[in-house]
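Journal club prep, shared notes

We agreed each person brings one worked example of a sequence with its structure written out as tokens. Mine is Replication region DNA-binding N-term. I'm keeping it raw so we can talk through how to read the token line rather than staring at a rendered picture. Sequence first:
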Amino acid sequence: MTQTVGTREKVFTAADMLLEQGIRPTQQAVREQIGSGSLTTINKALNDWWKTLGERITRQQQHPELPEPVLNIANQLWDRALAYAENRFEEQRQQLLQRESELRGEIERTEHGGHQALKDLQSQNGRLLDRCEALANEKHELEHKLLKTDEQTYRLTQQLDEVRAKLKQSEQMHSGGQGGEALIEARVRLSIQDEELARLRNRNDELNRENAMLRQQLQKPA
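Then the structure, token by token:
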């Protein structure tokens, strides 16, 4: 503790001497004057010296024992200290303004990215709605086509039954012993009916296949 107090007094004395010589008291300049002491201790003592300098000048004005050259130097150092503080404040203010500008830019870019993402989602949603509507229309058309196919199949089945009935009737007539032209006519009709029956069977098979394909398509999820 004694060493610290002694160092503080030495710092005050050395700072006064430097000030009288027109030299700004710095850590290094003070240390060279006193010849010892850590920079941390000197810096703390020098800060105290600067704090008391204004009070000492005021007291000196009340009790003008301090020479005028010393007062002039003190005033110059005080003006320099104020200028340094103002410059430092301006630097910090400019840094804060720059940081504010950067943050505003980041916020604007973030908002723009959010708006663009929302716009893309809305566009994608619109395309999906159009696709769903197209699939619904396609499904409706397939159902309508399937209904028509069922109707055609039903009519062809009726025609096939009629042809079979006529064929059976012709066979009965042929077995009844009728000859001559009636027999020839029955054979011709039987041949024609056989061809028609084969055509109707083929058409019925095609319709059954189409019907099965349409049902498979309708079972697919939309």
